[in-house]
Amino acid sequence: MQVLRVPRVPCAWVLLLPFLLLIATPAAHGASYKPVIVVHGLFDSSYSFRHLLEYINETHPGTVVTVLDLFDGRESLRPLWEQVQGFQEAVKPIMEKAPQGVHLLCYSQGGLVCRALLSVMEEHNVDSFISLSSPQMGQYGDTDYLKWLFPTSMRSNLYRICYSPWGQEFSICNYWHDPHHDDLYLNASSFLALINGERDHPNATAWRKNFLRVGHLVLIGGPDDGVITPWQSSFFGFYDANETVLEMEEQLVYLRDSFGLKTLLARGAIVRCPMAGISHTNWHSNRTLYDTCIEPWLS
Ligand SMILES: *[C@@H]1O[C@H](CO)[C@@H](O)[C@H](O)[C@H]1NC(C)=O
Ligand SMILES: *[C@@H]1O[C@H](CO)[C@@H](O)[C@H](O)[C@H]1NC(C)=O
Ligand SMILES: *[C@@H]1O[C@H](CO)[C@@H](O)[C@H](O)[C@H]1NC(C)=O
Ligand SMILES: *[C@@H]1O[C@H](CO)[C@@H](O)[C@H](O)[C@H]1NC(C)=O
Ligand SMILES: *[C@@H]1O[C@H](CO)[C@@H](O)[C@H](O)[C@H]1NC(C)=O
């Protein structure tokens, strides 16, 4: 885990362990910003966020930013519930030390880990949950990742693997959403169908209540992403059985308010920030995007 305290006046740099970097500072004067916790995506690690850290340092000096170095690289293929458990233990102490609340910024697959955290953590104090190009309604697209992992599968037949108990041992199958096999998805998805409240479970009411503690849900994505398919999944849109994209407001999970989306929208708590011209691996290094869609929500 990398703990980065970004100083207004840099004072002392203490390198503790290869994986624990602490930049200590005296308390800065002026506005104090809520701590920011960053969760990375598939085959990714904290290194990808170096530009973002610079932007935050520059625009909100004194902000404590923690980029969680857990489940890096291939470990990010571990089942998502296992990752949620690990990340929960890491974010808990940060939240406890921040009575004024924290911000969660989560990229790609990490956005699903974070949404699950908001559902299962009873006492979370997340002000802004920033979902950075994250397949919130699932993924149904051929990508290099898929070809690498399941070389003989295509998106049309991957459901055979993903909707089996064996397949659900891989993170990407936890949010594989085949619009042509809805019944299998609902029955087999041990992650997405649960956090979406699409399949009933004893904790659904409690999870919904927990999720609704969030201050703002900031959704970021765009048509040139190239990986998230359909790209509207970053905004809770998804394919119907004809592969026509239905927007969030047309989705059953929204209409039934099964995990709180409709309530959040009615409260004015959902911010949608679509950005064209950004490919999947550029979301954390684009300054225009940062200024427009992220910085305003890191108060
Ligand atoms: C933060 O910004 C200051 C200058 O404004 C710079 O000296 C310092 O190295 C930066 N720290 C990081 C971690 O980027
Ligand atoms: C689910 O509910 C049970 C019983 O109400 C509770 O013990 C458990 O902690 C809950 N789990 C989660 C992840 O919320
Ligand atoms: C649903 O899943 C259970 C086990 O998880 C399996 O026994 C059952 O056959 C599945 N039903 C359908 C319709 O796929
Ligand atoms: C899909 O398209 C067919 C033919 O255009 C139509 O009859 C059917 O109602 C559509 N299904 C959905 C779910 O929109
Ligand atoms: C950054 O974002 C802007 C606005 O969407 C876009 O026009 C530009 O091409 C992006 N730059 C990169 C390097 O992705």
Brief summary:
Its EC number is 3.1.2.2. With 299 residues, the chain is an alpha/beta fold.
What is the tally of helical segments? 12
Number of strands: 11
Which structural class is indicated by helix and strand composition? Answer: alpha/beta
Q: Determine the fraction of residues in helical runs and give it as a percent range.
A: 25-40%
Query: From N to C, what is the helix and strand string?
Result: EEEEHEHEHEHHHHHHEEEHHEH
Could you tell me how far the N terminus lies from the C terminus, measured between alpha carbons in angstroms?
A: 24 Å
Uncertain segments: 5-30
- Ligands and ions found: 2-acetamido-2-deoxy-beta-D-glucopyranose
Biggest β-sheet, characterized?
7 strands, mixed
Strand content is: 15-25%
Radius of gyration: 19 Å
* Average pLDDT reading: 89
Biggest sheet, spatial arrangement of strands = 1-5-4-6-7-8-11
Overall 3D shape: globular
Give an overview in words.
The protein is 30% helix and 17% strand. It is of the alpha/beta class. Helix 2 (80-96) packs across helix 3 and helix 3 packs across helix 9 (204-211). The radius of gyration is 19 Å and the shape is globular. It has helices at residues 50-59, 80-96, 109-120, 144-149, 158-162, 171-174, 182-188, 192-195, 204-211, 252-255, 261-266, 287-294, and strands spanning 2-5, 12-17, 20-24, 36-39, 64-67, 102-107, 126-132, 216-221, 238-239, 245-246, 270-274. The longest helix has 17 residues, at 80-96. It has a seven-stranded mixed sheet with strand order 1-5-4-6-7-8-11, with helices on both faces. Strands 2-3 form a two-stranded antiparallel sheet. A two-stranded antiparallel sheet has the order 9-10. Bound molecules: 2-acetamido-2-deoxy-beta-D-glucopyranose (NAG) (5 copies). One 2-acetamido-2-deoxy-beta-D-glucopyranose binds at residues 183-184, 187.
